Write the structure tokens for this entry.
Amino acid sequence: MSTSRRKRIKRLQALIASLQKQIADTRKRIARLRHPQRKISGLSKNGAEFIASFEGFSATPYDNDGGANGGNCTIGYGTLIHTGPCVKRDFTEWGHISHERALRMLQDEANNAWRVIEEFVKVPLNQHQADALISFAYNVGVGAFMSSTLLRKINEKAGEKAIRYEFGRWVRAGAGPVPGLVRRREAEADLYFTP
């Protein structure tokens, strides 16, 4: 076989290898388009900021007056220190915490909520839906989320109206609806239905 023919064969082999790689890459892109579901690892940065915007920040311990931690000693962005009102020891132990530490604490608590959601939600979620449910469970408590009709409706693949209704049921603290919880549940439902 001549040298020029060997060179042409090598060039053709290189071209074929290049085309095979392009075909494989194209197939991967098509698969991602068909199945856009990507592995969600928990609360996104936007989700943490979403929760923080509703929780408000306190550098020192305080008695929370709403949500799952109602009347309990809390710090940062709604992180529960313990059940029951704050006592002098809480102020001594915790002092002042930074925004960064509060966000880390929020993320840790949110990861606990995510593990429950990951186990009990039986339908695929996008990141917006995961963030909305983490916010909900973070606020009402994972026990309340696990026994909620909201979870059942999500797993039944109920329609948007039914799921929005279930978010909207969780707005009471004490005697009646709390405006802040009404706003939060509406925002969580909106986030859940964000494409």
Notes: The two ends are 60 Å apart (CA to CA). The first strand starts at residue 58 and ends at 63. The domain at 45-55+99-192 is CATH 1.10.530.40 (Lysozyme).
